[in-house]
Amino acid sequence: TIAGLPSGITAAQTITGSGTGNTLTVTLTGTFPAADSLNTSLTLSGLTITAPALTVSYLVVAGGGSGGSNSNSGGAGAGGYRTNYGGTALTLNVSTNYLVTVGGGGAATTPYQNGSNGNNSVFNAITSTGGGAGGGQGLIPGTGGSGGGGGYDRSGSAGNAGGFSPVEGYAGGSGTQSGDYPGGGGGGASEVGNTNANGHGGDGLSNSITGSAVFYSGGGGGGVSTNTTTVPGGNGGGGQGGEGTTAAISGTSFTGGGGGGGSASLGGGGGGSGIVILRYPNSFTLTGLSGSTTTVGSDSVTSFTAGTGNIQFNL
Prior knowledge:
The chain is mainly β.
Protein backbone atom coordinates (compact mmCIF):
# COMPACT_ATOMS: atom_id res chain seq x y z
CA THR A 1 0.00 0.00 0.00
CA ILE A 2 1.46 3.38 -1.03
CA ALA A 3 0.19 6.47 0.77
CA GLY A 4 0.42 9.96 -0.73
CA LEU A 5 -0.01 9.39 -4.48
CA PRO A 6 -1.83 12.23 -6.29
CA SER A 7 -5.14 11.36 -7.90
CA GLY A 8 -4.82 9.47 -11.18
CA ILE A 9 -1.22 8.32 -10.60
CA THR A 10 -0.63 4.58 -10.23
CA ALA A 11 2.23 2.71 -8.61
CA ALA A 12 3.27 0.59 -11.59
CA GLN A 13 6.74 2.12 -11.80
CA THR A 14 10.04 1.13 -10.12
CA ILE A 15 10.32 2.27 -6.52
CA THR A 16 13.58 2.96 -4.67
CA GLY A 17 14.04 3.84 -1.03
CA SER A 18 15.00 2.66 2.44
CA GLY A 19 13.52 2.26 5.88
CA THR A 20 12.99 -0.05 8.83
CA GLY A 21 10.20 -2.19 10.20
CA ASN A 22 7.11 -2.36 8.02
CA THR A 23 7.44 1.09 6.37
CA LEU A 24 9.74 2.58 3.75
CA THR A 25 10.17 6.21 2.69
CA VAL A 26 10.64 6.20 -1.08
CA THR A 27 11.11 8.22 -4.22
CA LEU A 28 9.36 7.38 -7.52
CA THR A 29 10.90 8.68 -10.72
CA GLY A 30 9.34 7.75 -14.06
CA THR A 31 6.56 8.40 -16.50
CA PHE A 32 3.07 8.55 -15.09
CA PRO A 33 -0.39 9.31 -16.46
CA ALA A 34 -1.13 13.01 -16.10
CA ALA A 35 -4.10 15.34 -16.48
CA ASP A 36 -2.86 16.65 -19.83
CA SER A 37 -0.55 15.47 -22.62
CA LEU A 38 2.25 17.94 -21.74
CA ASN A 39 3.11 16.62 -18.28
CA THR A 40 4.08 12.96 -18.31
CA SER A 41 7.38 12.85 -16.38
CA LEU A 42 7.19 13.31 -12.62
CA THR A 43 9.35 12.75 -9.55
CA LEU A 44 7.52 12.04 -6.31
CA SER A 45 9.48 12.03 -3.06
CA GLY A 46 8.65 11.27 0.56
CA LEU A 47 5.99 8.65 -0.12
CA THR A 48 5.44 5.95 2.49
CA ILE A 49 5.05 2.27 1.62
CA THR A 50 3.47 0.08 4.28
CA ALA A 51 3.99 -3.67 4.04
CA PRO A 52 1.09 -6.02 4.65
CA ALA A 53 0.90 -7.33 8.21
CA LEU A 54 3.41 -10.11 8.93
CA THR A 55 1.68 -12.59 11.22
CA VAL A 56 3.57 -15.71 12.25
CA SER A 57 2.43 -18.92 13.94
CA TYR A 58 5.06 -21.07 15.63
CA LEU A 59 5.71 -24.50 17.09
CA VAL A 60 8.88 -24.61 19.20
CA VAL A 61 9.84 -28.09 20.48
CA ALA A 62 13.01 -28.63 22.51
CA GLY A 63 15.23 -31.70 22.47
CA GLY A 64 14.17 -34.67 24.58
CA GLY A 65 16.28 -35.95 27.45
CA SER A 66 18.07 -39.29 27.41
CA GLY A 67 17.03 -42.26 29.52
CA GLY A 68 18.79 -43.43 32.66
CA SER A 69 20.89 -46.58 32.63
CA ASN A 70 21.06 -49.91 34.47
CA SER A 71 18.28 -51.99 35.94
CA ASN A 72 14.75 -50.52 35.96
CA SER A 73 15.88 -47.06 34.91
CA GLY A 74 13.58 -44.14 34.26
CA GLY A 75 12.59 -42.90 30.83
CA ALA A 76 13.44 -39.34 29.92
CA GLY A 77 11.12 -36.37 29.73
CA ALA A 78 10.04 -34.89 26.42
CA GLY A 79 11.36 -31.57 25.21
CA GLY A 80 9.31 -28.50 26.06
CA TYR A 81 6.34 -27.86 23.76
CA ARG A 82 5.18 -24.31 22.98
CA THR A 83 2.87 -23.20 20.17
CA ASN A 84 0.44 -20.44 19.23
CA TYR A 85 -0.95 -22.27 16.20
CA GLY A 86 -4.72 -22.15 16.33
CA GLY A 87 -4.54 -19.10 18.59
CA THR A 88 -3.26 -15.55 18.24
CA ALA A 89 -0.40 -15.21 15.78
CA LEU A 90 2.65 -13.03 16.46
CA THR A 91 2.92 -9.76 14.55
CA LEU A 92 6.53 -9.19 13.45
CA ASN A 93 8.49 -6.71 11.33
CA VAL A 94 10.02 -7.28 7.94
CA SER A 95 13.80 -6.98 7.42
CA THR A 96 14.42 -7.65 11.13
CA ASN A 97 16.63 -10.34 12.66
CA TYR A 98 14.92 -13.05 14.72
CA LEU A 99 16.94 -15.80 16.40
CA VAL A 100 16.14 -19.48 15.78
CA THR A 101 17.87 -22.29 17.71
CA VAL A 102 17.01 -25.98 17.39
CA GLY A 103 17.82 -28.00 20.51
CA GLY A 104 19.41 -31.42 20.18
CA GLY A 105 18.41 -34.42 22.25
CA GLY A 106 20.34 -35.64 25.26
CA ALA A 107 23.14 -38.08 24.44
CA ALA A 108 22.68 -41.80 25.04
CA THR A 109 24.22 -42.98 28.31
CA THR A 110 26.56 -45.73 29.40
CA PRO A 111 25.60 -48.05 32.31
CA TYR A 112 25.11 -46.76 35.86
CA GLN A 113 24.40 -43.16 34.91
CA ASN A 114 21.57 -40.71 34.83
CA GLY A 115 20.57 -39.59 31.40
CA SER A 116 21.20 -36.02 30.30
CA ASN A 117 18.78 -33.19 29.68
CA GLY A 118 17.83 -32.17 26.16
CA ASN A 119 18.75 -28.75 24.81
CA ASN A 120 16.51 -25.70 24.53
CA SER A 121 14.89 -24.56 21.29
CA VAL A 122 14.29 -20.85 20.64
CA PHE A 123 12.33 -18.57 18.32
CA ASN A 124 12.85 -14.90 19.17
CA ALA A 125 11.46 -14.51 22.73
CA ILE A 126 9.91 -18.00 22.76
CA THR A 127 12.04 -20.63 24.55
CA SER A 128 11.13 -24.29 25.00
CA THR A 129 13.16 -26.07 27.67
CA GLY A 130 15.00 -29.35 27.04
CA GLY A 131 13.47 -32.52 28.46
CA GLY A 132 14.57 -33.82 31.85
CA ALA A 133 17.03 -36.71 32.19
CA GLY A 134 15.77 -40.16 33.10
CA GLY A 135 16.93 -41.47 36.47
CA GLY A 136 19.47 -44.26 36.73
CA GLN A 137 19.42 -46.83 39.53
CA GLY A 138 19.42 -44.95 42.84
CA LEU A 139 19.87 -41.58 41.08
CA ILE A 140 17.55 -38.58 41.01
CA PRO A 141 15.98 -37.80 37.59
CA GLY A 142 16.19 -34.39 35.98
CA THR A 143 13.71 -31.55 35.60
CA GLY A 144 13.01 -29.91 32.27
CA GLY A 145 10.29 -29.03 29.78
CA SER A 146 8.90 -32.38 30.92
CA GLY A 147 10.49 -34.23 33.82
CA GLY A 148 12.40 -37.51 33.65
CA GLY A 149 11.12 -40.72 35.23
CA GLY A 150 12.65 -42.13 38.40
CA GLY A 151 14.66 -45.35 38.47
CA TYR A 152 15.00 -48.35 40.77
CA ASP A 153 15.66 -47.48 44.44
CA ARG A 154 14.27 -43.99 43.98
CA SER A 155 10.71 -44.65 45.11
CA GLY A 156 8.68 -41.44 45.02
CA SER A 157 11.33 -39.58 43.07
CA ALA A 158 10.39 -38.04 39.72
CA GLY A 159 11.59 -35.12 37.65
CA ASN A 160 9.32 -32.09 37.58
CA ALA A 161 8.23 -30.03 34.60
CA GLY A 162 10.20 -27.13 36.05
CA GLY A 163 7.33 -24.78 36.92
CA PHE A 164 7.64 -22.92 33.63
CA SER A 165 5.01 -20.42 32.57
CA PRO A 166 3.29 -21.20 30.31
CA VAL A 167 3.56 -24.89 31.13
CA GLU A 168 5.66 -26.77 28.55
CA GLY A 169 5.03 -30.34 29.71
CA TYR A 170 4.50 -32.63 32.69
CA ALA A 171 6.42 -34.41 35.43
CA GLY A 172 7.84 -37.92 35.09
CA GLY A 173 6.65 -40.99 36.96
CA SER A 174 8.45 -42.15 40.08
CA GLY A 175 10.63 -45.27 40.32
CA THR A 176 9.98 -48.31 42.49
CA GLN A 177 11.80 -49.36 45.61
CA SER A 178 12.05 -53.00 44.60
CA GLY A 179 10.46 -55.71 42.47
CA ASP A 180 10.33 -56.55 38.82
CA TYR A 181 8.78 -53.34 37.59
CA PRO A 182 9.90 -50.82 34.99
CA GLY A 183 11.32 -47.48 35.99
CA GLY A 184 9.02 -44.50 35.79
CA GLY A 185 8.12 -43.12 32.38
CA GLY A 186 9.22 -39.64 31.39
CA GLY A 187 6.67 -36.83 31.25
CA GLY A 188 5.09 -35.79 27.96
CA ALA A 189 3.45 -32.68 26.56
CA SER A 190 -0.04 -33.79 27.61
CA GLU A 191 0.38 -35.95 30.73
CA VAL A 192 2.71 -37.20 33.44
CA GLY A 193 4.76 -40.36 33.05
CA ASN A 194 3.34 -43.43 34.74
CA THR A 195 4.76 -45.39 37.66
CA ASN A 196 4.76 -49.20 37.37
CA ALA A 197 2.17 -49.17 34.57
CA ASN A 198 4.42 -50.69 31.92
CA GLY A 199 6.70 -47.71 32.46
CA HIS A 200 4.58 -45.67 30.08
CA GLY A 201 5.94 -42.25 29.16
CA GLY A 202 3.47 -39.39 29.06
CA ASP A 203 1.85 -38.85 25.67
CA GLY A 204 2.58 -35.84 23.51
CA LEU A 205 0.29 -33.50 21.62
CA SER A 206 -0.89 -33.38 18.01
CA ASN A 207 -0.25 -30.24 15.96
CA SER A 208 -1.27 -29.45 12.36
CA ILE A 209 0.90 -26.38 11.72
CA THR A 210 2.52 -28.17 8.75
CA GLY A 211 -0.87 -28.98 7.22
CA SER A 212 -0.82 -32.54 8.58
CA ALA A 213 -1.43 -33.71 12.12
CA VAL A 214 1.81 -34.84 13.79
CA PHE A 215 2.45 -35.76 17.44
CA TYR A 216 5.31 -34.11 19.31
CA SER A 217 6.96 -34.39 22.74
CA GLY A 218 6.15 -37.87 23.96
CA GLY A 219 7.92 -39.17 27.08
CA GLY A 220 10.37 -42.08 27.06
CA GLY A 221 9.37 -45.47 28.45
CA GLY A 222 10.96 -46.81 31.62
CA GLY A 223 13.52 -49.59 31.46
CA VAL A 224 12.81 -53.01 32.97
CA SER A 225 15.12 -55.93 33.79
CA THR A 226 12.65 -58.56 32.58
CA ASN A 227 9.85 -57.31 30.40
CA THR A 228 6.81 -59.07 31.87
CA THR A 229 4.28 -57.09 29.83
CA THR A 230 2.76 -57.95 26.48
CA VAL A 231 3.02 -54.33 25.33
CA PRO A 232 5.77 -53.83 22.76
CA GLY A 233 8.58 -51.50 23.67
CA GLY A 234 8.20 -47.91 22.53
CA ASN A 235 10.53 -44.96 22.33
CA GLY A 236 8.47 -41.91 23.22
CA GLY A 237 10.11 -40.23 20.26
CA GLY A 238 6.89 -39.18 18.61
CA GLY A 239 3.68 -38.32 20.35
CA GLN A 240 2.78 -41.53 22.09
CA GLY A 241 4.84 -42.20 25.17
CA GLY A 242 7.07 -45.27 25.08
CA GLU A 243 6.38 -48.38 27.16
CA GLY A 244 8.74 -50.16 29.51
CA THR A 245 11.09 -52.34 27.49
CA THR A 246 14.25 -54.38 27.87
CA ALA A 247 15.81 -52.36 25.04
CA ALA A 248 17.04 -48.81 25.53
CA ILE A 249 15.39 -47.14 22.54
CA SER A 250 16.25 -43.61 21.48
CA GLY A 251 13.74 -40.89 20.74
CA THR A 252 12.79 -40.10 17.15
CA SER A 253 14.43 -37.05 15.58
CA PHE A 254 12.55 -33.77 15.09
CA THR A 255 9.76 -34.49 17.58
CA GLY A 256 11.45 -33.80 20.93
CA GLY A 257 10.67 -37.22 22.40
CA GLY A 258 12.40 -38.58 25.48
CA GLY A 259 14.72 -41.57 25.26
CA GLY A 260 13.82 -44.87 26.88
CA GLY A 261 15.35 -46.03 30.15
CA GLY A 262 18.02 -48.75 30.13
CA SER A 263 17.77 -52.21 31.63
CA ALA A 264 20.20 -54.64 33.25
CA SER A 265 23.59 -53.26 32.16
CA LEU A 266 22.35 -51.34 29.12
CA GLY A 267 22.75 -47.61 28.76
CA GLY A 268 19.76 -45.31 28.28
CA GLY A 269 18.44 -44.27 24.88
CA GLY A 270 19.24 -40.84 23.48
CA GLY A 271 16.65 -38.09 23.29
CA GLY A 272 15.01 -37.04 20.06
CA SER A 273 16.09 -33.72 18.62
CA GLY A 274 13.71 -30.77 18.67
CA ILE A 275 12.25 -28.70 15.85
CA VAL A 276 11.12 -25.12 15.16
CA ILE A 277 8.27 -24.65 12.66
CA LEU A 278 7.03 -21.25 11.45
CA ARG A 279 3.90 -20.56 9.38
CA TYR A 280 3.43 -17.16 7.69
CA PRO A 281 1.78 -15.58 4.60
CA ASN A 282 3.43 -16.72 1.38
CA SER A 283 3.71 -13.11 0.18
CA PHE A 284 6.85 -13.04 2.35
CA THR A 285 10.15 -14.85 1.91
CA LEU A 286 12.39 -16.06 4.72
CA THR A 287 16.18 -15.81 4.61
CA GLY A 288 19.01 -16.72 6.98
CA LEU A 289 19.27 -20.03 8.83
CA SER A 290 18.58 -22.89 6.45
CA GLY A 291 15.21 -24.58 6.72
CA SER A 292 12.79 -26.57 4.57
CA THR A 293 9.83 -24.57 3.19
CA THR A 294 6.54 -25.88 1.82
CA THR A 295 3.32 -24.13 0.76
CA VAL A 296 0.05 -24.84 2.56
CA GLY A 297 -2.81 -22.86 1.03
CA SER A 298 -1.94 -19.15 1.23
CA ASP A 299 0.81 -19.78 3.78
CA SER A 300 4.45 -20.83 3.72
CA VAL A 301 5.65 -23.29 6.36
CA THR A 302 9.36 -23.44 7.19
CA SER A 303 10.78 -26.19 9.40
CA PHE A 304 14.19 -25.89 11.07
CA THR A 305 15.67 -29.18 12.25
CA ALA A 306 19.23 -28.19 13.25
CA GLY A 307 21.50 -25.26 13.96
CA THR A 308 21.22 -21.74 15.30
CA GLY A 309 21.18 -18.37 13.56
CA ASN A 310 19.16 -15.33 12.59
CA ILE A 311 16.30 -15.26 10.10
CA GLN A 312 14.53 -12.36 8.35
CA PHE A 313 11.15 -12.07 6.69
CA ASN A 314 11.19 -9.97 3.52
CA LEU A 315 8.73 -8.95 0.84
